């Protein structure tokens, strides 16, 4: 029995050695180990958000209708037009207020002219009455050389002239008060008409809404037709006064926000470097650093129950690609440790034999297993020792049969 077992072991070793040097094994996919810096990272998903943005509102005007919108997602500068409303109603009101202002001004001009005419007439009448008093007083001064009857008549005429002068002075005061009241009323009406016209003119200016800051235009949801028919505002929509229609996020304030599992929370610290790879722009890697970590966890409602606890993290970004937009999402790598001089191999090149990590090194005769020590590991790569840089390694286990052979 011992002889049979030994014979079988030698046969198995010979078969394995032949498999490692077979032509099939030499056609396996390979990759070369490289020397360089290895970044130990914590991986998560992140979304770009703008920490600063401005909402654009409709003016405080009734019966507004959108006639033009800047394209959604378009870049704008400060002062660029974003929203135009139909100005016909405001223009009609402004025309009516202009006519009312002209009428009020004409009424005021008429009141001023009438007051001036009355003032001149009153001055003439006052002068006439004053002359009459002076003449009567002169006649009364001759009473000593006149008869008693003539003297009494002169005194009576003086008294009547003085009473007439008092009446005229009272009339002048009454005319001044009346004309002043008319002018004040006409002035108030003119000022009110001017204020109404100015308000309409301001509303006319508000028919065009411009960008208060540089950024990209994002239109908010119009809920006026109910949540089932809700959609972003568009040309032709009727909007209510002061309605929030659009939002312009400041692209220079973009930051990455992600969530970390509890097991990863203790590995990261404020100031760790961050690499963000957008799904829509995989070639536009964005770097930054971690600036905040939530102190409390929150449930992550991703469909699993019970929901896992996660911590929100926030990263400040460095130079931004102008194509980046808020709400873009992608992979986020938080660098927690750096190994400056490491031998880096693909994660697919690592295998386990008898519980120990090994790689299969390519030789002229096939692939030979080499034990290695794993210093750090990421999902795609690992830092190892025990092999040299440039070593060609198998990316699949050369001791296993190909899948096509297994199917046969």
Mean pLDDT: 84
What is the CATH architecture assignment of the largest domain? Beta Barrel
User: How many distinct helices?
Assistant: 6
Strand content: 25-35%
User: How many distinct folded domains?
Assistant: 3
Largest sheet: 6 strands, antiparallel, barrel
CATH domain class name of the largest domain: Mainly Beta
| Poorly predicted parts | 1-24, 404-408
Radius of gyration computed on alpha carbons: 48 Å
CATH homologous superfamily label of the largest domain: Efflux pump adaptor protein, beta barrel domain
Structural class call reads alpha+beta
Strand order of the largest sheet: 2-14-18-16-15-19
Beta strand count: 25
What is the helix content? 25-40%
Detail the topology: elements first, then pairings.
Layout: H1 2-20, H2 23-26, E1 30-32, E2 34-50, E3 53-57, E4 64-69, E5 75-76, E6 81-85, H3 88-140, H4 148-205, E7 208-210, E8 215-216, E9 218-219, E10 221-222, E11 231-232, E12 238-239, E13 244-249, E14 254-261, H5 262-265, E15 273-278, E16 286-293, E17 298-300, E18 308-317, E19 329-346, E20 351-353, E21 356-363, E22 366-371, E23 373-377, E24 381-385, E25 392-394, H6 403-407
Antiparallel strand pairs: 1-25, 2-14, 2-19, 3-13, 4-6, 4-12, 5-8, 6-7, 9-13, 10-11, 14-18, 15-16, 15-19, 16-18, 17-18, 19-24, 20-21, 21-22, 23-24
